[in-house]
Amino acid sequence: MKRRLKVILTIFGFAFLASCGGGEGEKTGLTAPSGETGTTLSPRQEKFESEEGYPLTAVIWPEREIAVCWQMDVDAFNSYSAQRESVRQAIHSTWEQSSLVRFIGWQRCNGTPNQGVSIAVQDVGAHTKGLGTRLRNVVEGVVLNFEYTQWSPDCQNQKDYCNRVLAVHEFGHVLGFAHEQNRPDTPDPRCAAQEQGTDGDALFGDWDISSVMNYCNPQWNGDGALSPTDIAMVKKYYGDPAGIAFIDITPSIYLLTN
After folding, report:
1. Which residues on adjacent β-strands are paired with residue 65?
2. Contact, 194 vs 216, CB < 8 A?
3. In Å, how far are 136, 137, 205, 253 from 208, measured between CA atoms?
4. In whole angstroms, what is the distance from residue 89 CA to residue 92 CA?
5. Strands 102-108 and 65-70
6. Which residues does 221 contact at the CB level (< 8 Å), separation at least 6?
7. Which domains are seen in the chain, by residue range?
8. pLDDT one-digit tens code per residue, 10-37
């Protein structure tokens, strides 16, 4: 029995050590810029030169669990079951998988503020009514589209793809990330002309053509796949999951029951 307890304590000792440590998605048709701009900085660029994506750091959520609810009636909630799950999985496999942030709940809004965000589904351009914590308790703060009859009818034949890609982009806004093309160092004037929504207040890494937050990405919203810079940015502001190891406690359970 003493030997079994020693093995159990050893397993949990390793477990402890392993856990410690350190808008709207319009298709643009623009291609990646072919060259870089000169080294002269505009006043707006100089403002950010010493900073290191395009987050609005003032609205980054302080908590790592953000409540989510669907602003819809019972019939709509039930009929959109598959679409809702597809959105949840898209967020899980991108922003959640790359950080310590977790979106929780995903049930119908009940009229009581959830201290998080609420999602509505309307046949309009997907968008948010602010960035980051400015969406806290805002009714229909996030708007997605599952039908595409009036807006972006090209999605009629690829609804699930559009649902996932748009959700990843809009949840980037939920996390406090502005449009990449809004950055002052956007190199292509055609891309800079598409500036939309609230600006960030810090630059993270180089201007990223591949960001899911960039309208100028040659792949619409990056096909819903985070770029390396997107991943690095969400890790910086919401924690790096690399220091949290999954520990299989099955051997411990076996020792205790045998």
Report:
1. 102
2. yes
3. 28, 31, 8, 47
4. 5
5. parallel
6. 25, 165, 166, 168, 169, 212
7. 2-22+246-257 (no CATH), 46-236 (3.40.390.10)
8. 433 333 333 333 343 333 332 332 333 3
Write the secondary structure of the chain as one string of H (helix), E (strand) and C (coil): CHHHHHHHHHHHHHHHHHHCCCCCCCCCCCCCCCCCCCCCCCHHHHHHCCCCCCECHHHCCCCCEEEEEECCCHHHHHHCHHHHHHHHHHHHHHHHCCCCCEEEEEEECCCCCCCCEEEEECCCCCEECCCHHHHCCCCCCEEECCCCCCCCHHHHHCHHHHHHHHHHHHHHHHCCECCHHHCCCCCCHHHHCCCCCCCCCCCCCCCCCCCCCCCCCCCHHHHHCCCHHHHHHHHHHHCCHHHCCCCCCHHHHHHHHC
The tokens for 57 are 């750091």
Supply φ then ψ for residue 70, to 5 degrees.
-100, 125
Instruction: Show Cβ contacts of residue 141 under 8 Å, excluding neighbours closer than 6 positions.
Output: 117, 118, 119, 128, 129, 130, 135
Give residue-wise pLDDT tens across range 206-254: 999 999 999 999 999 999 999 999 999 999 999 999 966 544 343 343 3
Which residue, 147, 102, 153, is CA-closest to 120?
Answer: 147
Q: pTM to 2 decimals?
A: 0.76
Q: What is the token pair recorded at 72?
A: 């819809």
The tokens 């010493």 sit on which residue? 50
